[in-house]
Amino acid sequence: MRLRVLDFGYVPALRSQAIYHGVAHTITEDSEPVLTLVNPDTPYVCVGVHQEVAAEVDEDFCRSEGLPVIRRHVGGGAVYLDRNQMFFHFLFPRTKAPQYAVNLYPRFIDPAVRTYREIGVQAEYRPVNDIHVAGRKIGGTGAASIGDATAMVGSFMFDFDTSTMSKCLKVPSEKFRDKLKSTLDDYMTTMTREMEELPSREAVRDIFLRHCAEVLDVEPVLDQPTEAELQAIADQEIALSDPQWTYRKGKGRAKMGVKISESTHLNEAMHKAKGGLIRASLLVRDGKIDDLMISGDFTCLPEDGIDKLAKNLRGAELGQEALSERVSREIKNLKLDIPAVEPSDFTIAIMSAAATER
Q1: Concatenated DSSP letters for 304-352?
Q2: Residue partners of 172: CB distance under 8 A and separation at least 6
Q3: Cα torsion angle, 181, 185, 188, 189, sign
C-alpha cells in the first residue's frame, strides 16, 4: 500500500493545524493513506478538543506575547508549540486503520521510537500513548476521527521551551508556576538534551519514512497536495480560527462552587485517570444531575461522544452504584472509545463534584 507523504516544511501556526485537519476531510474509503509533516514557523498554544480554554490557558499572558490559541480536533492537554517540533499526522481511511485507539498507538508510535533509537536517543514506548527516554517524556501522541479519516498525530522533539510553556498555562499562583517549570524540566527531555549534535530535519524525516515502511508495510512516496487538499486546508484555517470553535465550552458559565438554592448547587471537580484528566462541571438539583459538562485532556472517539455522554446522564441519581451502572451503560450504548479511561473514572469525577464543599 502506498503512503502519500506531504511535507509542508515550516508554515504559520494556524496552517500547521489546518493542514492535517484539512487533508483528513478529503479522505474517503478508497483513498490512499497520507502522512503529513510540518513545523510551525510561529509559536502558539494548542488546546485539546475536550478542554476549556478559560480553565487551562493564561489568556492574558498569551495576548501579551501575541500567542494565538488554537483548538484541535484531537484530545490531550494544552501545550506550547514552536518551530523546534516536527509534527507527523497519519491519516488513514477508517477501514484501513485499527478499530480502537488503544490499538493505534503501539503500531503508529513504533516508527517514531525506532527513528529516535537510530539517531542515538534511547526512546521507548510507554503506554498508553507516550514516548519516554529513561523515564522522561520526549513526545506524546493523540488519535481522532476527523471526517472519514482516522488520525494519529505525534511529533519529534528537537527542543522544548519549558519556560514559555509554564507561563502559558493557568495556575493558582506564581509559586505553583515556578514548580510547574521545574517539573517540566525534570520530567521532559528533547533531542537537544540527549544528543551532542542535532540531526537535520530532513535526516530525521528520511529515517522516519524508512521505519514507517518497515513497521506499517507501506511504500512512502513524497507527493504534492492536490487542489482539493489545498482548498480543504484553507477551509480549515477559517474553521479553526472561529472564536465559537476555540471557546466553544465554558464561556459565560457560572462560577463553580455556587449554592443557587437549598436544592440546587453548581460545582466542579477533577479526577486524574490513567488516560488523562477529567473535569466534571455539575449542576445538581434535588439529588440528581440537572446539567453536566465533561472536559479534560483525555481522548474520546467519536469526538462528540463525550458531549452525548454528558447529555444522556442528565436526570441520573447521584448515588455511587446507580451512577456507575448508568455511566457504563451509556458508554456502551454510545460505543465510545476512550483509551485508558474507565466508566468508574467518570463516576468518581462526577461524585467528587457532587460532594464538593458548598
Answers
A1: THHHHHHHHTTT-B--HHHHHHHHHHHHHHHT-B-TT--HHHHHHHHHH
A2: none
A3: positive
Please report where in the chains the cell 511529533 appears, as a residue: 155
Contact partners, residue 310, CB within 8 Å, separation at least 6: 292, 293, 294
Separation of alpha carbons 151 and 162, rounded Å: 27
Cell numbers for 357, please give them: 464543599
Q: Indicate whether 355 pLDDT > 90.
A: no
For 305, phi then psi, to 5°, come to: -65, -35
Q: Which domains, and CATH codes, for the chain?
A: 2-246 (3.30.930.10), 258-354 (3.30.390.50)
pLDDT computed for residue 257 by the predictor: 58
What is the value of pTM for the model shown?
A: 0.88
% of the chain with per-residue pLDDT over 70:
95
Helix axes 320-334, 343-354, angle to 10 degrees: 140
pLDDT digits (tens, 9 = 90+) for 335-350: 999 999 999 999 999 9
Q: What's the whole-number average pLDDT of the chain? A: 93
